[in-house]
Amino acid sequence: MPNAAPPQATSPARAWGRYVLAGLAALVFAFFMITGGVAYDVAWKLIHPSRIPIAETPSRQGLAYRDIAFPSAVDGVRLSGWLIPAARPGGGLVIEAHGYHQNRASDAPALPVAAALHRAGFAVLMFDFRAEGRSQGSEVTVGLYEQRDLRGAIDYARRLGYRRIGVIGYSMGAATALEVVAKDRAVRAVVADSAFADLYRYLSTHMPEWTNLPNWPFTPEIFFELRLINGLDVSKVDPLRDVAALRHRPVLLIAGSADRIVPMSNSQALYRALRRDPAASLWIVPGAKHVGAYTVAPKTYLARVTGFFTRALGSGQ
User: Fold this and answer.
1) C-beta of residue 253 within 8 angstroms of C-beta of residue 222
2) What is the pTM of this model?
3) Strand locations in 203-314, DSSP E?
4) Which residue windows are transmembrane per the record (predicted)?
């Protein structure tokens, strides 16, 4: 039987190469563990903003109202809100949709718009999105599952007998309104104040500004963590993609020239996507900041909004 060949010694160069590769692998692993931990913290805070207490009610505007509750569509999250009845039941109704880290009454235009619409003869439904205000839920999804909430509000209004329904939204609520109304032709008109056009592009652009973190690797990791935590796929919140379905229905886009949170270019892109539909209009308010058109020009804002819904839905009565 032939003798077995003696084992060959590993050359120093090959052994050193293995140590280098193992060291690099350890460094890469540690790098992504650290950056992944930071990304997880950012993602967690994004979808768990602190709740803002409701400090005012419609009575501040001299309006009678009643507390309401209804389920979100699909997953049945219990949502809390107010119904401000019109002078005569069965008329038109406008739903207000608030912004990110806000509640039904905290956006500057919310209660004044409700009062103006009521005076014009409309009922108004104001509510808190999930995990905001007094609604149930534990996670905000920046316009994804909020679409279910707005659909729940529309379904609730229909159960009350309203058929001439419009929506006005602010910031995240504006983007949510565009998405929902594009898919629900029974809603006749929408006002979108300071809407973002595309959540993926919007967050990709602005995340480094908010977090002071480099875009790579943090922004892709934050998006990954959002999907891991609660299934939030930011690419699914894309009004720019869906808004074309609103053609031939009245749409009013409002933006401020001094908005640094959601620049007016978002509303301009949405208007272009509507191909300058005669039923659509874009109002850019010089000097207005985010959801700031009402603050800059309150009388004009209320006149434009009430006039828009009166034309789109008919007389409130």
Assistant:
1) no
2) 0.91
3) 251-256, 280-285
4) 20-43
